[in-house]
From TrEMBL:
SMART domains hit by this protein: HTH_ARAC
Residue intervals of the HTH araC/xylS-type domain: 225-326
InterPro entries assigned: AraC-bd_2, AraC_XylS_family_regulators, Homeodomain-like_sf, HTH_AraC, HTH_AraC-typ_CS, Tscrpt_reg_AraC-type_HTH
Organism: Panacagrimonas perspica
Gene3D superfamilies, A to Z: Homeodomain-like
SUPFAM superfamilies: Homeodomain-like
Protein's recorded name: AraC-like DNA-binding protein
An annotated Gene Ontology molecular function: DNA-binding transcription factor activity
Length: 339
């Protein structure tokens, strides 16, 4: 049985001006071609071909900042993330599935569901899961970082492997994304952030409802989102800190720390995480290859390159320069010896 695995790069939904990729539709003929596509877009998966004839697929992929959005029609098949592959993957993502035709089977955390057209489900890529498709099934998949969904670390074990009971809000979110990626590139860069924020809010509300989150918890999550937006909007300010966030949220410093403690994070860590994710996205973007690492660090509010490099390595396992070199090497064509 054919299998394939591979690494995945981190992306950042807030870096909407730093990354924009909207390739056209692709027709994939043959299971090996399908595996290569999945390796490039959704790695660290095993593959199983359940098609009795020749395997084929049609895919349309879009990357708007850190949102990876694809529509896929494929022959009967299965993808599996084993425990070993989940541990090997560099980063975790929320994966939302919208069934458009045919049937899809999802299993995670001992729970499973079958999706019919118009239904939605969610899984977490940090843990093992399995997705199976009926022949010629069509579905849309959206991958976004964990912190795009308020309270995800609490909700993940509750909602993964089950259908979302709320259909209206996910449908609006997916349709908004479908409309967005069909617009000219300049329009996406100029207007995309507001659409992505709306999509985040809709999906967070739907997943919170599925996880039984109370209205009080939703209000706390809304304040955390406001804090995150303030950080993004002031990312270049090296003096950004808890006092700024407390003022923005109209609360005391003590109340701010209690709010963040409820989400198992501190204000300083959120600021560092957002800066590091933005930096990772900037380095991944070829248009920034001419920029010095020190300039990227200073633009994102780091006080100096040494601090930036130390934090980046602690988060991603490599220095910023090493990460850039790895990306360039990975994209370089293999050297074929003469003779």
């Amino acid at each position: 049985m054919d299998t394939a695995t591979g690494p995945r790069c981190q992306i950042d939904p807030r870096a909407h001006r730093d990354a924009l990729t909207v390739p056209g539709p692709q027709k994939l003929e043959g299971f090996s071609v399908w595996k290569d596509f999945v390796h490039d877009h959704f790695p660290w998966l095993e593959h199983r071909n359940h098609c009795s004839g020749r395997f084929s697929a049609r895919v349309t992929t879009h990357r708007v900042c850190s949102f990876e959005f694809a529509t896929i029609q494929a022959s009967a098949s299965e993808v599996i993330r084993t425990r070993h592959l989940a541990e090997a993957a560099e980063n975790g993502f929320v994966k939302l599935l919208w069934q458009k035709s045919g049937a899809l089977f999802l299993e995670q955390d001992g729970k499973h569901c079958s999706l019919e057209p118009g239904e939605f489900a969610v899984c977490d890529t940090v843990r093992p899961y399995r997705v199976g498709l009926s022949d010629a099934a069509t579905f849309a998949v959206l991958m976004l970082p964990h912190d795009s969904i308020s309270g995800w670390h609490y909700l993940s074990s509750k909602v993964c492997g089950t259908k979302l009971t709320d259909v209206a809000r996910p449908k609006v979110a997916f349709e908004a994304l479908t409309t967005l990626v069909g617009l000219p590139s300049e329009t996406i860069r100029d207007e995309g952030e507001s659409v992505l924020q709306a999509v985040q809010s809709l999906l967070s509300a739907s997943i919170q409802q599925a996880g039984g989150v109370s209205s009080d918890a939703s209000a706390r999550d809304a304040r955390l989102h406001k804090a995150r937006r303030h950080i993004v909007e002031n990312i270049g300010n090296p003096g950004l800190g808890p006092d700024d966030l407390a003022t923005t949220l109209c609360m005391s410093r003590r109340a701010l720390y209690l709010l963040f403690k409820g989400h198992q994070i501190t204000p300083a860590k959120m600021i560092h995480d957002i800066r590091l994710e933005r930096a990772h996205c900037c380095i991944d973007d070829e248009r920034n290859d001419h920029r010095k690492m020190t300039d990227i660090a200073l633009d994102l509010g780091f006080s100096d390159y040494a601090t930036f490099s130390r934090l980046f390595r602690a988060r991603f396992g490599v220095t910023p320069s090493e990460h850039r070199m790895r990306r360039r090497f990975a994209k370089s064509p293999p050297v074929v010896p003469n003779g």
